[in-house]
Amino acid sequence: MRRAALVAARELRADMRHPDGIATAMTLMGALVLVESVVVGPQTARDVAPALYWISLFFAAVVLTTRSFERELADDAIDAVLALPGGRDALYAGKLLALAATLALVAIVGAILQIALVDLRLALPGHAALAVALGVVALPAVVILDVALTLRLRARAALVPILAVPALLPQLIAATNAVSLASVGDAAGSIAWSGLLLAVGLIYAVTGLTIGGTAIE
User: Fold this and answer.
1) What is the rounded distance in angstroms from the CA atom of residue 58 to the CA atom of residue 140?
2) Could you give the CA distance from residue 12 to residue 68 in angstroms, rounded to a whole number?
3) Which of 50, 124, 194, 212: CA 20 to 30 A from 177?
């Protein structure tokens, strides 16, 4: 756990020194929200806002994770970490912690943009925040695993979404419904979908921590 914390701290410092990944992720979120608010109209935008929010957050996670591994490959730091005892598991767990923290920042910015530009009204903001928090924790496990599996391939930019979307579909559906129901005041429905989101997130996390280290070469 100590090594994972060290890897996470190193990742966060690297993001602060080279914030291009975070800037790209936030730009993607902002662009999608802006297009949504202008093209489809206010009423339709409010209807599709939760789904588009999670889709854009997924792609933001892919951008952040890919950029993180590209830094490792560029300076050969990944080989030094992998050479340590337990280095593979520490690298996966550390990136999991760091990506969750960074993605939380992107998620907050994206939520503010959605509320401001789309005029999204949340009847139950606490329930929506719970769904977002659970989704942010659940997303990195699968995305990191898929980026690690395609790390040495030139076509990884295209392969990661293809591999990740089928696995993340239950989470994206649950998260979208949890936020949608929170926006219309259905507390029981939102909590039910958040519970499903929690269960799926735990499955992803356990699976990722079990095989994530092996996937990193």
Assistant:
1) 9
2) 10
3) 212
What is the pLDDT, as a whole number, of residue 123? 84
Residue of 157 and 137 predicted with greater confidence: 137
DSSP class per residue in 160-194: HHHHHHHHHHHHHHHHHHHHHHHHTT-HHHHHHHH
Specify the 3-state DSSP secondary structure of 86: coil
Question: CB count, 10 Å around CB of 210?
Answer: 11
Give residue 153's region: left, alpha or beta (phi > 0; psi -120 to 50): beta
Q: CA–CA separation, 63 vs 15, rounded Å? A: 12
Q: Which of 40-44, 166-170, 197-201 has the lowest mean pLDDT?
A: 40-44
> pLDDT digits over 145-157, tens only?
887 777 767 766 6
Q: Residue 148: exposed, middle, or buried by beta-carbon count in 10 A (0-12, 13-18, 19+)?
A: buried
Q: Tokens for 82?
A: 């992998």
Identity of the residue numbered 198 = L
Residues 6+ apart with CB under 8 A from 215: 92, 145, 148, 149
Name the helix (H) or strand (E) containing 24: helix 20-39
